[in-house]
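$ run holo --ligand "zinc ion" --emit tokens
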Amino acid sequence: MYFIDTHTHIDMLKKLTPEEAVARSESEGVKYIINVGSSLQGSRKSVEFAGKFSNVFASVGVHPHYVRNFGNKEIEILESLLRSNPDTTDKNNRKRNAKVVAVGETGFDFYRNLSPGTDMVKSFRAQIELALKYDVPVIIHDRDAHSQTLEVIKKYTGNSNFRAVIHCFSGDTNFAMQCLDLGLYISFTGVITFPNAKSVLETVEKVPIERLFIETDAPFLAPQIVRGKENYPGYVRYVAEKIAEIKNLSIEEVADITSKNAEKFFSLNQS
Ligand SMILES: [Zn+2]
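-- output --
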């Protein structure tokens, strides 16, 4: 049995070094970690870790918090990261770094509203288009922006290269069903272990396990049982445990199925 933390930021950990975080996660049964870029600096770090640790993969992107004045220059930097140390050729003969497995996180955050909405839309579309160009999936951040997220996504769902996951899913079951109908995947964090997580639990129950991923979003959102501690990828097992409890499955089943889902979606076994 092993787990995959499909969304984490080990570059933001304060208590553990990246080396310690990776080693401890491995001893907790975490086979792969996807380190997700939320800024240009974070994206560079993700690619650096993917080069350094055999079990770490990278996603490159800029979080909606940081997209004020996002434009061509930022896309060029993300593209250069996708193409760094190229060792894979995609079906369009485009070379990229095989360990950069996604673009994101990108999307909308109307909870904190740190960037103008127009910049969020523009950067979201540009990052989706970059993902399509390199045939990699998109990791979507959606906070208080379900209808706006759907509006953008619907422009791309006709494209056969378009694959996306809504990370740290916070919507209700109705929104989850709309996302599933559009072919998206849904990823849950330690939020599902919080005492006030009633509505998201119903969503966990309804979403088929074949369409789910697990993640920590560390260093944020430590699961309830380790609340107050710094979150890290080793705690992803608590997310799996909660899903097992809700869906009446064994933790082994949840680990196996969610790991297979993630390996396939992010093409983790090809590099
Ligand atoms: Zn994140």
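-- notes --
The pocket of zinc ion is lined by residues 7, 9, 36, 38, 105, 217 (CB under 6 Å).
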